[in-house]
Design a protein that fits this description.
Blueprint: H1 2-17, E1 26-29, H2 31-36, H3 39-76, H4 82-135, E2 140-143, E3 154-155, H5 157-170
Parallel strand pairs: 1-2, 1-3
Helix pairs in contact: 3-4, 4-5
């Protein structure tokens, strides 16, 4: 919250006290409105969600299998020879490590997938904002949801959305 106030004060300070105060022009974009209905983002969201659900399902199955084997071992451990007990314990430790490895791997793979799917969208959004800001000769473009108060300024949301769709469809 304090960071947002400092940013707003800094922007207004630059506008009020800067040498080019008369030429300073603010615009704002609502990122959520721009991105929520973009087909590439909707598709990326679905892909990430499906990937995450499949990974979580796999981990849950592995965990259930481990717990089943562990419970069987706990019931039978007193009747097992020391060598068999040691082998079962080693097997259980390996299963547990595999579950942990799968969880870590899922997180890493999810990060890679996010980077691959969302980076072109983010790059396109940045380019769309730049194009529309230059078109309207806007000095600063703020994200609507990170500003405490917006009264005036140029709302670039619709134009940025249209430009982003154009940029993404050209890729």
């Amino acid at each position: 919250m304090i960071k947002k106030i400092i940013i707003v004060i800094a922007f207004f300070g630059l506008g009020i006290f800067g040498a080019t105060a008369q030429n300073t022009k603010f615009g704002h974009v609502d990122y959520v409105k721009v991105l929520d209905s973009i087909p590439a983002k909707v598709s990326a969201d679905k892909t990430v969600q499906d990937f995450l659900e499949e990974g979580q399902r796999t981990i849950a199955e592995m965990q259930a299998n481990f717990e089943e084997e562990y419970n069987k071992y706990m019931i039978a451990q007193d009747s097992l020879s020391p060598i068999i007990r040691e082998m079962k314990e080693k097997n259980l430790m390996e299963q547990q490590q595999l579950v942990q490895y799968k969880q870590e791997s899922l997180q890493q793979d999810l990060q890679i997938l996010n980077d691959r799917l969302y980076k072109p969208i983010e790059d396109g959004l940045t380019k769309a904002i730049e194009i529309i800001a230059k078109k309207h000769k806007v000095t600063y473009v703020l994200e609507t949801n990170s500003v405490l108060y917006v009264n005036g300024g140029l709302d670039l949301t619709k134009e940025v959305k249209a430009e982003l769709i154009r940029i993404l469809s050209a890729q």
